[in-house]
Records
---
Amino acid sequence: MKRIYLLLLAFTLLFTLPLAAASIPKMDKDELKNQLGSENVVVVDVRTGRDWSASEFKIKGAVRVNDGDLTALESNDKEQTFVLYCA
Amino acid sequence: MYNSFLLPASIGLCWIFSSESLRVFGAGTGFFGWYNPFALLAIAVLYFYSRSLVEQASRHNKFLSPYGMICKRLGTLPAMTILLASRLSLAIVIPMAMLVTAGFTFNEIFVYWFPNFGFAFLLLGFVLFLHILGGPVPHYMQVFFAAVTIAAILILIFAGFAGTITSLEGDMPTSKISSNLSLHHTFSFLLLFLGFESLSFRAAKRGRIMTVFGGSVCILVLWGFLGLFLTPQTKLIDSTVPYLTAARYVLGPQGRFLMGVVIISACLGATNGFFIMAQNGLEALIDSHRLPVHISHRGRSVLLAALIAVSIGGLMAAGTAGSYKLEAYILGTLLLWLFYQKLELVAALTQSEKRGDKNRATYLLAALWPLATLWLLFSFSDTFTLACFIASVLLAGFLLSWLWYKQGRRSTNNSKS
């Protein structure tokens, strides 16, 4: 019986978590390009390891967040738009 | 073909122009400034001299291999442990890093819509395919990869110099170049010579070896000068891909294209080369200690190549390339190789001492290796992870060696009785 409850919980999470994630808006590259340089937009480069170091292209002015360390963003205004960039 | 000159030379050439080496060299160039070529040449001379000592000791010991000398000095089990640990980690960790970098290079320079990890897996599959074909195929392709790498970087350098000379009437670099000294960067240059230890004075004349070794160092120095002359120094220090930054300043889009060819062909060559080195290390153990292996020589090569490829693929699929600990794993692997080089040198000096051949300069040289290893270990930003990785790999090597050696002795005792 316990196993059935655990399976039910797992399935529930499997289908509800993506719905929660879907509430976070996405921005395409053209939209971002138009907003680059704006004071209200903060681009956060969340690439880690070789995903970041092997890439030649880094967005100018992007704040690098390494391994989930958000201390670099503590001084930012929470009303700003934070764009997380991972690819 | 392994004992010939071309194959070991091509492994060393592909490594010294790989993305890993060019990154270390580029960072050193940015930091050292005009001291850079002197630092590299000094380290190159010390490295070559230490290899000469190892070869000399081998010759005086009826051409006993460096591994054989380590066995005599330390015992079989420690020698097996460090050989397995260094060769297997070299065949798995470094190719993984290079393949991921090659994937990004392909995606950002050549075909932007092709997934970078897809290309990395494609390259890995290609190297595995070469080893499944077996025979001389991986060896001939090794030489081909080295030839393409050297050709591309030479074209880039000559075109860069030609462009610089014609534009000297107009624009001169205006940024001031500062030169700094750094033991960290100096010792890091020791890691550029991986693969050249396979060059044996038995298989080729000293002059040829010096030409290949010295020639590759000269090409690197020329590249360093060109990059320093045309690239703002701060860009080299700040960039995570200083070789591409420099290539862009040297020759624009064509420079990036050529450097892309260098990175991908060197990646293929170094990966293929490390597979070959792992196979040959294994064969040396099997032959030296008569270890029980009930698979044919060709079967062993294919099986080991498949195991290594699956390990690399598994690590890539698990997202190790995105882990912040990857740099610790890479440095740990290279330090294990450096440690093995140090053991070869110490074993060689021990043999020289027994012959009554004492030279204070060689003792100083022998002291350089552990100093370099420890300096690189403790100057790394995450020494704990690095030390844990090295300890884990050595432990795994020890367990594998112990089981294998124990089984080998049991088989020998059974056959005697």
---
Amino acid sequence: MKKYIRYATGTLLIVALTFSLFTCATTGGKKGKELDAKISKAFGKDDFIECAKLIGEKDKKGTDIALNLDIGLLQHIAGDYEASIKTLDKSATLIDEAFTKSISKEVAGAMFNPNLKDYAGNIYEYLFVNAFNALNYYNAGNIDEALVELRMLVTKQREYATKYGEDLIQDLSVSGDDLDSTNKSLSDIDIDMNDIIGHAPRKPTKDDVYNDSAFIRYLSLLLYTIDNDANNEEDGRRLELLNTDFAGETEAVTSIEEKGREGLGRLNLIAFAGKIVEREEGYFNLPVPLTIFTPNLGLCTAAFYIAKGSPIPPCFGLHFTYPKVQEQESDLRVSSVTITNAVSSETGENTSINLDLKVLEDFDKAVKMEVATKAYKAFNASIFRSTTKKVLTLAAAETTIIEVKKNVDNPAFVDIVTFAAMPGIQKGLEALDKSEAPDIRGCKYFPRLCYAGGVDLPEGMYNVSVKYSNGAEKLIENVYVKKGKNKIVEALCLK
Amino acid sequence: MKKISIPMLLMLFLLMVSAMYAKSKVKRVDKVEDIDGYWNDNDINIVCKDLIAQCIESPRIAKFEAENGRAPTVIMGKIKNDSAEHIDTSIVAKKFQNEIINSGVLEFVADKYEREALRDEILDQQDHSTEESAGEVDAEEAADYMLQGSVKTDVHQEGKIITRAYTVTVQLMHIQTHRIIFSGQNDSVKKQIKRKKFKI
């Protein structure tokens, strides 16, 4: 009797243990959800500093790249440029260091859950962290350090962005060994790999690789001109290639010295609208056709057991995931820009100019390109991971039950133990599906649309009013435009 | 054999854990270690030593002293950060200034930020100090030259190897005529950093 109890307990314990290895808890829980609710509330009230502080509570170690980017961007939006500089400096270092793989977490990510891997940032985050930090330094009055950020960008684009794209296009599939193992596992349960591959996201091409930005080129053009550095032909040329609407902008910005002789300076406005689109889980479910019955636990397992006389897998499905882009909920746009005198000019004339802004860049495109480069490989990896996890789980359970059968010579008892274990196995297999989640991490507080435009003005003090389509108005007061100089003004409205 | 009790084991375990998480230790170092491959104190020392030597040996500076009977008076301008790193170039400027003053080759006057404080003090003295001891307004010594410079970097990566080469330039420019009487350059600081393979 004791032997029977021991084997029964042992079987159930081994099965339970196997599942617990694979069903890694995702972050969150009740406390996490409460914190997320507070963050949303703070963001809704435009309390960006509080929002940043609450996000900081989610990142106890202070090493989460996506969360640090979120905090840095929120501090920037709130106008706390010094704090944002520190946070984005840290984010840039973390992204740089994350290129060194953490081997143990790589294996865990490959096997269990891609969200266990260290998040290394996306390529556009890698570039934008310096661009927004350049704006931070400029707004804080330090043009030299703003230019340092741009030089860092140049190095990154030259050394990393191109190679990143090449690596992505070349490294599309899982390894040959993994593929063989997956094929075998699938064929063991009568699944043809071709039934699955047809549902994969499309393969990426070199056109999906994001490695340049009209926003960065425009910002670089402005900052270098402000620094009296005329060596920005490359920026102007690339800007016009990336966005033909800005074909005349280089000339308008760089001819400022001549305009200075006529007493004119140039006010250049960069206005951000809306929040960048987020990623979500895309998935494909494939029911495994193992039973002639409806997928009822007890019936199908019992029927197969009776029919075949050996423990075989209960009914389950295969669940494969990949990242995809959410529907963009934000429709926020800049509706008008008005520039007025802050102080009456020397001539006594009052200025009121409507500035026509054009869309310089839609950052959602960067997200779509990034997802397009990763979805195909993520889907393949999910096939390998999901199939392997389930087959391993079933194999562990099957081995245990076979051991019980060998060592206990009471067939009825073996039937009872096996039958009792099956619902647990079924639940465990379902739980594996829940742990199968694509990596959809990323900074949530980048803006969506970047508008830009400029106007030549007589030297003086001006107020700039930017109105958005949701009725919000951003007023930037006392902007001093000096003759012969470019001035950058920034406006943001994320919701 | 005496059995080890559970409370004892627990205590041993707690001792081990507390040892692992002990407070940080501070260790004073004479030489800064190059941990991350970025610009550091050692680099400032290397560069300043070389540029100061070049400045002291400059024949044009010696010629000024011979012609005017005094060392040139210099005001510290800006050492511009034209690099791809956040470098506090004011440290370079201050170190350069201190060493040159101590060598006696050049005389320095306060820079524009320091002058603001001095002028405020002189004005305050007119109101609050004795006539004999108060300083004179508008009696500052003008500088003949301004010292300016820049730090540039050239960064390249080939596979796992990142190479950073620093070029530091300083120039002495006549404030009135804009003539340059000294131009020094140091490009001896080059670093090669081997990183683990870049991988997405």
